[in-house]
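Box 3.1 A note on notation
Throughout this textbook, protein chains are presented in two layers. The first layer is the amino acid sequence; the second is a C-alpha cell string describing backbone geometry. Keep the layers aligned when reading.
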Amino acid sequence: MFYKKEIKFSDGELAFLDSIYNLSMSAEIKSDERNILLSAKKELEKTGNVPKSINDLMNSFRLGAVQRSLSKPVSEFYSKLYQSNSATSGLTKGVALSTALLPIWDS
C-alpha cells in the first residue's frame, strides 16, 4: 500500500517557501511571474527539494533578468535566488542548508 510522505521543512526552507507565497500574492508582479512562482511553490511542497526549486526558479527568471524585463519585486527575488544558489552549492538537506537559507530569506 502506498502512502504520501509528509515533508518537514526547516526554518530556512519555510522562510524560502513563505517568500515564494508572499511574492506570488503581490499586485506588483506580472501574471506570468505569478504562474511561475505558484508552480514552483506547488512543486516544492510536493518534493521538498529546495536546491532544485532554486535552480528551476533561476532558470525560469534568467532571461527576464538579462533583458531587465522582470517586475521590481521579482528582480529583487531573483537576486536573492542567486545568493541562495551560491550559498547552498553542494548542500542538499539538513541544518547546513537551513543555516545557509535563513539569513537570505528571513529578512
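Residues 34-105 form one domain. The helical segments are 11-24, 31-47, 50-67, 72-87, 94-105.
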